[in-house]
Amino acid sequence: MINRYNKGDSFYCDNRLMNKLWLLFSLKQVPHVSWSSEKPLNLKPKIHTLSMLILGLVLFGLGESILITSSIGVSPWTVFAQGISNHTNWSVGFSTFVISVCILLLWLPLKQKPGIGTILNALIVALVIDLSLPYLPQPKTYLIQALQVSVGVVIVGFGSGFYLIANLGAGPRDGLMVGLQKASNYPISAVRTALEISAVAIGWLMGGVVGLGTVIFALGVGPSVSLGCYLVSKASKP
Question: Rg (Cα) of the chain, in Å, rounded?
Answer without folding.
Answer: 19
